[in-house]
Amino acid sequence: MIKRILKFLIKNNTPRWMVLLIDIYLVINTFVFAYLIRFNFKLDFEKPQLIFQGPLVVTVALISFLTVGSYKGIIRRTGSRDAFNVLMANLLLMILLIGVVTCNHYFNINAGLNIPLSIIVIHFLLNVVLLIASRNLFKLAYEFLITDYKFSERVMIYGAGQAGMITYTILKEDKKNKIQIYGFIDDNKRLIGKKINGLCVSDAKDITPDFIADKQIDTIIISIQHIKSSRLIEIVDKLSLLPIKIKIVPPVKDWINNSLNAHQIKPIKIEDLLGREKINLNNPILKKEFNNKTILITGAAGSIGSEITRQIVNLKCKKVILIDQAESELYNLQQYLEQKNIENSMAIVTDVRNKARVREVFKTYQPDIVFHAAAYKHVPLMEVNPYEAVHANILGTKIVSDMALEYGVEKFVMISTDKAVNPTNVMGATKRVAEMYMNCLNTEGKTKFITTRFGNVLGSNGSVIPLFKNQIENGGPLTVTHKDITRYFMTIPEACQLVLEAGTMGNVGELFVFDMGASMKIYDLAKNMIHLSGLKFPEDIAIKITGLRPGEKLYEELLTDSEKNGSTYNDKIKIAKQSPIDCDMLRRGISDLAALKNNDDTALVMLLKQIVPEYISNNSVFESLDKKQCSVPIAIGSSIQ
Description:
Blueprint: H1 2-11, H2 16-38, H3 49-68, H4 80-107, H5 117-147, E1 153-158, H6 162-173, E2 179-186, E3 195-196, E4 199-203, H7 209-215, E5 219-222, H8 229-239, E6 245-248, E7 266-267, H9 270-274, H10 284-290, E8 294-298, H11 303-312, E9 319-324, H12 327-339, E10 345-349, H13 355-365, E11 369-372, H14 379-383, H15 386-406, E12 411-417, H16 426-441, E13 448-454, E14 456-458, H17 464-473, E15 478-480, E16 486-487, E17 489-491, H18 492-505, E18 511-514, E19 520-521, H19 522-532, E20 543-545, E21 564-567, E22 573-577, H20 583-595, H21 601-611, H22 623-627
Parallel strand pairs: 1-2, 1-5, 2-4, 5-6, 8-9, 8-11, 9-10, 11-12, 12-13, 13-18, 14-17, 15-20
Antiparallel strand pairs: 3-4, 6-7, 16-19, 18-22, 21-22
Helix pairs in contact: 1-5, 2-3, 2-5, 3-4, 4-5, 11-18, 13-15, 15-16, 16-20, 16-21, 17-19, 20-21
């Protein structure tokens, strides 16, 4: 019964009036105890005087506690601030008692109220110690009574620094999840073997399967801020081999109201391993660039186009025109914007290859800025459909960019790919031709044509991450084309943020290349995803090597030998300095591509190879064309060789 009462009081926050009564009760007891201490626990003092002094102490204590409000704190969450309030309240109590006793002595009101100064000082010290101790005992009682020693999860915190301490505090206060913190893990030799808050700091090297089994650890939480992605990957690689769950504390910038919440500590994802920081779109340059402007986004229903849309609608644009031929996905984007009460957008179902329709859109809405994200991007699929790749990626780009020039668009930003560098496939070659055409248009009008080039984005439609997730859900195996194949990765939001910023800084004919960080092995990525799914490789899920797909190469590149990096004010965005291009020859080559029929893939790819001399097929049926000597080569000065 007593336990139930205590449990009820603790769980439902003890009323303030009850805390005040308990404090007054303790003050009376410490006052009597102060006399006992002063007289060496002998009853030599005059006991009747307590009849006068007791009510005085109660009255003054009540005034002090009410003034400071030391009784208002939530006892089960007692901290340093509560201890300080108790100290201040008792300090005020001591000062008031001294004042009253001094006045009584001076005016000789009542001899029974003359409390010795030594008693007042001892009383003050006893009050501070006992009232703070009582609060902490109450806090401990809460922990014991509410949890009943039934912990659902035993965790260790990887990182004994400041972030680790914050995580420790948050988990200790979160009693709903019944988490027991066993200790810390750290690489710092000066901390290893020491205790923090009574918990031992273990060496990362000692965290073995036997250690985990012996200590019954369920989860390890990585709590290190500003950690390099390479180091995070190394830690996760080791931890993923253990029979535990791996969680991570988000970066400080993602904390809610600059405070960490236990619910924000979530299982680690592949995206976390990139260690890439988001750019802050609360940027006056971006706001000024897009304020009251009409923006046209092609390929708006795709991964990149839709994210650009989500970011740009918050920048007070006059109108955002969304173009895509994918009706369902465009409808989903439209519904998302309506739910967000975005009223300045217009979704139009059309194909960038439809010149008349594209002209109508430009004539009707007169866009100020165009983001051209419409493209076919899947390498193996375009390798067997070169006609579609050419018409979408080259001729579609030409139609939209020509309209931008004709209708006086301020800026035209094209989304390109690292596969345009030394292309080994049809898709990459078509994107390279589009890059070259952008460069040629800059001399013909007021429109600034800007190209942004970056690698793979995590989570985009058809990318490797959703593929692996689907394969894991189906029990595997995970399919990797080659054990040594590598790719550059960035998140979709980051890629789009960089596109927007590049659009604001771009001048005539510039090609911006994004810093993608270090390339990642797809084979290692597959293993990490298996481990992070709580499964073992290869016991639970295997990885199958399928061989390079048509047009695929082992390593992607962002720059070539002939291109040089130029810096911008954003260290994640570089300018690729390009070589001159024979634009007349390029236009003739594009016209010849447009004239070819859709059943003549060989002639089409042969012409592509003439336009882009560095285009050499890999693992493709078109490799034989590289061995033939082109009888009439088109002399186009390529900027990528």
